[in-house]
Design a protein that fits this description.
Number of helices: 3
Shape: elongated
Strand content: under 5%
Oligomer: single chain
Order of helices and strands: HHH
Length: 122
């Protein structure tokens, strides 16, 4: 397992990574009797920090590029699917008819035979 952390200052980040590493090791050792393989936990590489700070602009530009690309891709897929439905089955033209979705009640929909004088609230 490899942990990465973005924090202010090398010393603080190294102490925090070391704390997390020790917490994971402690939890793993406490749950050793529950594990089916009975394996032990060993930290091979101590917590280290890179003295070169992360370039946040590059990460932000990459995230924006991925978002823009996926937005364009989803829009194109939606347009293609809509056009194919419209062209092949005429489904969208049938769904646009108002009479298919006319949910307003008419006089024949109301069953007045069940109403009686006792059910009327005044």
């Amino acid at each position: 397992m490899q942990l990465s952390l973005s924090a202010k200052g090398n010393g603080y980040a190294q102490r925090l990574l070391d704390t997390y590493t020790q917490a994971f090791v402690s939890q793993s050792k406490a749950a050793q009797h529950v594990r089916t393989d009975g394996g032990i936990t060993k930290v091979l590489v101590p917590a280290m920090t890179n003295p070169i700070p992360l370039d946040e602009r590059q990460r932000l530009l990459m995230a924006m590029g991925i978002f823009a690309g996926s937005l364009v891709c989803c829009t194109l897929i939606g347009v293609v699917v809509t056009r194919r439905l419209r062209r092949s089955t005429g489904m969208l033209s049938r769904l646009d008819d108002d009479d298919l979705f006319d949910l307003s009640p008419t006089a024949t929909d109301w069953d007045t035979s069940r109403l009686s004088e006792t059910n009327v609230i005044t």
